[in-house]
Amino acid sequence: MGTATRIATRVAAASMVMLAVFFMMGCGPQETVERDTLTISIGAEPESLDPVNMTSAPAATVGEHVVERLIYMEEDGSLVPMLAESWSANADSTVWTFEIRQGVQFHDGQPLNAEAVAVNLRRFVDPEVGAAYAFLLGSVQEIEAVGEYTLQLTLAEPFAPILSHLSHSFIGIVSPAQLEGLAADDTIEIPVGTGPYIMDSWNRGDSITMSVNENYYGAAPQIENLRFTFVPEASARIVALETGEADAIMAVPPQDTDRLAADPNIDVVYQTSVRTIYIGFNSQREPFTDPLVRQALNYAVDKQLLVDSLFDGNAFVADAPVVDAVFGHASAGPYAYNPDRARELLAEAGYPDGFSMRLLHPTGRYPMDATVAEAVQDMLAEVGVTATLETQEWTSYLSYTAQPVDQATYDAFLLGWGTVTLDSDYGLYALLHTNQWNPNGNNRGFYSNSRVDTLLDTARVETEPSVREELYAEAIELIWEDAPWIFLYNEGQINAVRNNVGGLIHHPLENLSAWDAYFIQD
């Protein structure tokens, strides 16, 4: 049986599982969702909603309803005020001044002011806290409230993407009262923010509930309560939507869109994405220390077959570590499918008979993630590489692949990365710079190239866009040759909503926002 046939068989099997779940659920009584509650079903549980510990899109989707940041990025990429009403910089862009919105209260009644923001940002960059996304604030040296509502950031040197980085969901502002007495390694369970909803409870492994913030400074939400449920199996999410248990679901597998579109009560929503799906190698572990091995495995995987067989036009083969909508993107590929070349490179590297490896993958976090891992396993087998698949629940998976280099025993891992600031600094520096190795960064494969580091460092402080583009183009060329990942594909996102719900924002940055949601009267 060829790889394409095996993929088709697995897709059909997944569809049969969904039908079985549907009929089993249809045999018993269904939970009635009140009209004042909107239920959104997502594929993975947030690892944390404490801004310093957030690392995933599920955390961003849930968290942004409760905790806000200084700047918001619109669907078209433009930056608009959120908790900061305005901002300006000095001549060399080393001092940034932000005017903080007045008349805003945290959910505990504490006022928002410049010092409240400063306390949060200081915690975010505190090396003892060890926020995985501290790199977002670049060369910020001093964070000071210079007036009741005036915040000043002083940088050691210019930092080109500072405004887009400040729009990131993970740089959220919580009540300073919640931070009082908090040790560096303490974490916030239920954040107290300024957002349109107040977080009420977190039932681990099941759901998060929140209720409307009656004192919200902006337009009041029209729906009283939000409920986010965590359902890794796509088939179960789909059935929940069809039966009305869920009002909206995220990450619909492409092969299920026709079924949902045929339901007169459901709308299928397609949206672009900035996410690249890849298989990262542990570059400090044999045999993946050798770039010839890493290149070989890139040639061994038929990415176009994956895209055509599994995603029905809703993905495309990656030609760089970041998608083309991101500033600094430069096409470097793709690696063409060439199993003969893969075998040649493996023989040259000293593995003419292949080798065995462990490939970690999540289940339910990304559309078709487990099926993709199985297909890659088959393709690697065709060039003599035996990959043993291992999966874990999402939050455990993130922790396991965030171990320091001396404890990381994994060979390779499937992950996705959305460059949600639309700047290559976020997509390249965060994942591929040496100083971003685990545990206090996102370079989970421990890739290191001193020339790439220099290029990425220089691009951070360069203020001329055309020069930054040249620096990123060179960095991408080197990264592509080094092959720290199997560069798979850039995925689109597919959500589905019951058609009695309006106002949901399906953001290209992969958030599903219910701030403006409402029920449509029958």
From TrEMBL:
GO terms for cellular component: ATP-binding cassette (ABC) transporter complex; outer membrane-bounded periplasmic space. PROSITE patterns: PROKAR_LIPOPROTEIN. The keyword Nucleotide-binding does not apply. This is ABC-type dipeptide transport system, periplasmic component. GO terms for biological process: peptide transport. It comes from Spirochaeta africana (strain ATCC 700263 / DSM 8902 / Z-7692). Belongs to the bacterial solute-binding protein 5 family. It comes from the Bacteria. Keywords: Membrane, Signal, Transmembrane, Transmembrane helix, Transport. GO terms for molecular function: peptide transmembrane transporter activity. The chain crosses the membrane at residues 7-25.
